[in-house]
């Protein structure tokens, strides 16, 4: 399969946009724009991200053993571009604060949800490393998510996604959705 065909296929798979952050052993924040986020299992609550093996963020994440996933809202495109570009100090360009529990960087202006994760497994695959993270804490607000597909950003067209009430959600889920972590 030629690489162009693979790239075309994956660019047609529209997703949300996240910024994965961590703290380095040097005490500095690191982060990158990430659309490879996926839910893996609900019990235990594990997600995956695939990060470029040569990148600075993965190196810091390996050392730290914890990371945060910041989901961007519709006004977060600039942050997505900054965290994908060779900007000297990405965190100087955005609002952020350490999370109260793990002290991981939370994007205060551009993200509507932040999940703290503990690295549970790392799997090197070609030029990326698949990181499995156990979600230990979630902070979430109602918002319209930022999407990425066809190499373009767009806002989720249905408007804000409310903050779910976990008990009501589980009860109202159609049976065919019960095996899905989301
Ligand atoms: C929309 C978008 C999605 C991206 N998704 C990923 C991803 O899932 N994994 C990855 O390693 N890089 C992804 N990138 C590229 C990284 O953000 C980029 O290579 C970044 O500079 C890496 O930073 P680092 O050197 O700090 O690791 C994406 C870029 C964009 C614009």
UniProtKB/TrEMBL annotation:
Cross-referenced InterPro entries: Flavin_Rdtase-like_dom, NADH-dep_flavin_reductase, Split_barrel_FMN-bd
E.C. number: 1.5.1.-
Query: What's its top-level EC category?
Result: oxidoreductase
Q: Which SUPFAM superfamilies match?
A: FMN-binding split barrel
Q: Which domain of life is it from?
A: Bacteria
- Gene Ontology MF terms in the entry: oxidoreductase activity
Question: Polar residues compositional bias: what residue ranges?
Answer: 173-182
Cited SMART domains? Flavin_Reduct (SM00903)
Q: Which UniProt keywords apply?
A: Oxidoreductase
Q: Which Pfam families match?
A: Flavin_Reduct
Q: Where is the Flavin reductase like domain?
A: 10-155
Where are the stretches annotated Disordered? 159-182
Entries under PANTHER family matching the protein? FLAVIN REDUCTASE, FMN REDUCTASE (NADH) RUTF
User: What is the protein's name according to its record?
Assistant: Flavin reductase family protein
